Automatic annotation (TrEMBL):
GO terms for cellular component: membrane. Residues 298-368 are annotated as: Disordered. This is EamA family transporter. The keyword Plastid does not apply.
Length: 368
């Protein structure tokens, strides 16, 4: 359980870093270049991890890297940008908050990871918390924006589950670097066609891209895929709900935004949903349901003892005990218990055995 908790903490690096990415993007990165921004974010991060791992893809990992890079990076970034342009942030975030449920269902189908009740309950509470944090009123909702947000959520969830399924035999840094490079390469031609020449970068933008590349992309995705290797997909998906929590807290602490009571209640619900998805919470639920509790023995029953390898011993009668008759002792003396053999007496009918009392000695003396 301690190892699972440590891996959950490692996984939490990803959504926290992604939550800070919103603030850095809006404050320091050039506006109007989402595709170039995604490509500049993905390619250097992938090359950095490739430099650390020093391994190139082999065999099927060439097409797997392209597929995962498209699902998790290039198509995801493009669809998220489209959804952000067509939907209020609250609606887009609420749609993305359903990702844990989709990951659980896909993991059930592709990985045979059956969703557990605490995971499903945590996902429901987490989605409710995100809606409570971010929804501030009625807003216009476009169908195209909703479809783009749903597509981004489903594609990334599928990419994460496939990355978990294909992770055997390849280290995390290598597979993450290949995905980022493939996703960046796919983005470049679309950026050239849609956005023309790349943006000119100044000091703040260079520092912002450095943070986004190293922390919010290379480190974040490596931590995320490491968590997928060691934790159930449902647990990892619920940890991802820290993303909007980080955004709200960062807005409060850095941007000076007020944290309302409604947002505070939503934040508490999200954290509760995340905790329900952790392995320790599942074990606690199992204890409550009695799955790991041994049934209590009936009242008055003797405690169970370990059986011998040869099987249980036959029952002995408490009233009868047998012995070897000593030499010189008659049958009558053995039957009446008057044999003059102190310390070797064996009686019938539950009388004394193996000891001689003063009364016995007196009686024996009188008989002699």
């Amino acid at each position: 359980m301690e190892a699972a908790f440590r891996w959950a903490l490692v996984t939490a690096i990803a959504p926290v870093a992604w939550g800070t990415n919103y603030f850095v993007t809006h404050q320091f990165l050039p506006a109007g270049y989402p595709l170039y921004g995604a490509a500049i974010r993905a390619l250097p991060a992938g090359l950095l991890l490739l430099l650390v791992s020093g391994k190139r893809p082999r065999g099927s990992w060439w097409w797997k890297s392209l597929a995962l890079g498209t699902l998790n990076m290039s198509a995801f970034f493009a669809l998220i940008y489209l959804a952000a342009q067509l939907l209020p942030t609250s609606v887009a975030s609420a749609v993305m908050a359903t990702s844990p449920v989709v990951m659980m269902l896909l993991a059930w189908s592709l990985l045979s990871e059956r969703p557990r009740i605490p995971h499903l309950a945590g996902a429901g509470i987490g989605v409710a918390g995100v809606c409570l944090m971010l929804f501030t009123g009625v807003a216009a909702v476009g169908v195209l924006g909703v479809l783009a947000s749903i597509a981004a959520m489903v594609m990334s969830s599928l990419g994460y589950v496939l990355a978990k399924r294909w992770s055997a035999g390849v280290d995390v840094l290598s597979s993450t670097s290949w995905q980022l490079i493939a996703g960046g390469v796919v983005l470049v031609p679309f950026a050239v066609v849609a956005e023309g020449a790349p943006p000119a970068l100044e000091g703040p933008a260079i520092l912002g891209f450095a943070y986004v590349t190293v922390v919010a992309t290379a480190l974040a995705f490596a931590a995320w895929f490491a968590g997928l290797r060691h934790l159930p997909a449902g647990t990892v998906g619920l940890v991802g709900l820290l993303n909007p929590v980080t955004g709200v807290l960062l807005g409060t602490t850095v941007a000076g935004e007020a944290l309302t009571a409604r947002q505070l209640c939503g934040l508490v619900l999200v954290l509760l949903g995340i905790l329900l998805g952790q392995p320790g919470a599942a074990r606690l639920a199992a204890l409550v349901r009695g799955r790991v509790c041994r049934p209590s023995p009936p009242a008055g029953a003797a405690p169970a003892t370990a059986a011998s390898p040869a099987g249980p011993s036959p029952p002995r009668s408490p009233a009868t005990t047998t012995s070897i008759r000593p030499r010189g002792v008659s049958d009558h003396e053995m039957a009446t218990g008057t044999a003059n053999t102190p310390g070797q007496e064996v009686t019938r009918g539950g009388s004394r055995a193996g000891c001689v009392t003063p009364t016995d000695r007196s009686r024996d003396a009188g008989s002699r």
